[in-house]
Specification:
By secondary structure, the protein is an alpha/beta fold. About 40% of the residues lie in helices and about 15% in strands. The protein has helices at about 70-80, 100-105, 110-115, 120-135, 145-160, 180-200, 205-215, 230-235, 245-255, 270-275, 285-290, 305-310, 330-335, 335-340, 345-350, 360-365, 385-395, 410-425; strands spanning about 1-5, 5-10, 10-20, 30-40, 50-55, 80-85, 140-145, 165-170, 255-260, 265, 370-375, 395-400. Helix 1 runs parallel beside helix 18 (about 410-425) and helix 3 packs across helix 15. The radius of gyration is 22 Å and the shape is globular. About 45% of the residues are buried.
Length: about 425
Amino acid sequence: MDSSALYKVPGMELVDHYFDVPLDHGDPAGRQIKIFAREVRDLDPQSVHKPWLLFLQGGPGFRGPLPIRKDGWLKRALEDYRVLMYDTRGNGLSTPVNFQTLAAEGDPQSQADYLKHFRADNIVRDAEILRAELSPETPWSTIGQSYGGWCTMTYLSLHPEGLKECFIFGGVPGLERTAREIYEGTFPLVEERNRQYFEKFPIDKQRLKHLCNHLQQHDVRLPNGDRLTARRLQLLGISLGFADTAEDIHFLLEEAFVKVGEQNAVNHSFLKSIQMRLRFDTNPIFALLHEAIYAQGKPTAWACSQVQQESYPHYDNHNDFHFFGEMIFPWMFDEIGELKSLKESAEILASFDAWPPLYDRGVLSKNKVPVTCAVYYNDMFVNTKFSRETIDAVPNMKAWYTSEYEHCGLRTGGEKIFSRLIDIARGEVER
């Protein structure tokens, strides 16, 4: 382990840590990669003795939070813990997965074989190496946001001995739900968000119809050279799963056109905004492994696309526009410039049929680690029914079910939600 000297930001002191871990934990003496984690503690000199809280990031494909301000859930956490902000493998300051590094892996098969090592099972095995260095005698606590909750359940399956307690925010997975079942469960949630959006902004149905017709008749290019298509516009719907984003999309659509002489043209400012909102160049893991995070044994086979084509064909009718949700489709690897070079790798991953299990039902049926969860009834990304199945099946899991927050509850109400979960875990309040 390599560590930097202590340095400070307002209200907090930080220490950066780097760890060497095997790319393939089945071959511990083989190729190594770097893992970065940032220790965060408050300015109390006694904080160095506080217990550890490991943050498991949402995603897949994003770095850990940046400790810029001592507020929200982090403020509450630092009262009781020192926090480890963990850049999971492939992300942030850990050995990155991006277009430059993937190209160096060789042909599409080599790239796909490399990417198979970047799911929750190896994220958890990396975490245990970190714990062996930082807290070798003591289990630590974890907090998992969204996909971090998936990683938490994998952690409980593979290394429960490393865990003292766990907190999950909007991320309790269905343990045996396939990728196809996940999308069968989330498409109705996306349908409801579309209904709510167009009920709130009915003018946008006509705006989007007009815009889609224009895009079909004209070759409109984003600033990066990609053609803007109707179905690429549909990807904006991923943000409907967060608070206050319906208004953001509505105001964006207001500026879709500009008068150029006597002709209407798609506004450059609008095109620039679309390109910035739908970026896949910095976080390709999100697209490449998005369905694979649900895979155990069977191939995912572009499950989302299958469900859409079979049960929701009206999404292809752009005269009656519908937004997509948190969804990846094979056509994205044809239309999105940053993904085109990875099309063959994505196809290999979609057809892979030997994904190892992520959860051990036998171990989980005997779980003794306290797990406290915030489950959001209004979550567009995680089906509450699937979360409840897991919570009811695994001992020592407690849940607070609430309609007060969206999937981004940890960001918008983190201090309040985390305080409540801590109180529930300690038996100080009822669920």
